[in-house]
Amino acid sequence: MPYSQVAQIREAAQRIASRCPQMRVEESILCRIAMLLGRDLVSRLNELIAPAGLAELEYRLLLILFSHGGSASPGELCGLLTQSPANLTRISNLLTARGLVTRAPHPEDRRRLVVSITPAGEKLVRDLMPCLTAGLGALFDDFTAEDRQRFLDYLLRLMRALDEVPRSTHAEQV
After folding, report:
1. Region 93-109: what's the mean pLDDT?
2. Distance (Å, rounded) from C-alpha 72 to C-alpha 61?
3. Alpha-carbon span 158 to 156, nearest angstrom
4. Whether the Cβ atoms of residue 105 and residue 114 lie closer than 8 Å to each other
5. Packing angle between helix 25-49 and helix 119-137, nearest 10 degrees?
């Protein structure tokens, strides 16, 4: 989203609020911008990892395995990736076909599976890290360390509120 679209978002929110006075304009603008930022950050990450033939979820799976000492159960991965078992199977099938992960029975409980990153997968993560660090880190060059910490604190507060504030049942009444 080009920054120039922020004015359009503000204007649209104001127009809606003029017709629906109960609308909370600032919060609506914040939510819209947060959603667009999330989309655009994923898009930027996809641009950076595209030369390696990866998509964002595939890369995140590799990173999670890398950060967990190389292996995790499908159940753990579904939770950490916030993905369904079916989608995790699809992603791990793609990475298995490329030789970046393996799936095998758990050594102590053969009923369970373990997904593990291969040496080639680890090498790919290590090879991508400088490009990602530079490409994504540059987005924060205009922020001081204090700004970054404050921004993180605000995002975490918003995440906590999203978890703690009860879901509205108003939509069900309409």
Report:
1. 90
2. 10
3. 5
4. yes
5. 130
Chain position carrying tokens 């609506």: 28
Q: Which stretches within the chain are classed as H helix?
A: 5-19, 25-49, 56-67, 74-81, 85-97, 119-137, 145-164, 170-173
For residue 54, count other CB atoms closer than 10 A to its CB: 23
SS3 143: coil
Residue 61: which pLDDT band, with cuts at 50, 70 and 90? very high
For the segment 78-87, the average pLDDT, to the nearest whole number, is 92
Q: Is the pTM of this model over 0.85?
A: no
Please give the distance of CA 137 from its chain centroid, rounded to a whole number: 16
Is 45-137 a CATH 3.40.1550.10 domain? no
Q: How confident is the model at residue 7 (pLDDT cuts 50, 70, 90)?
A: confident
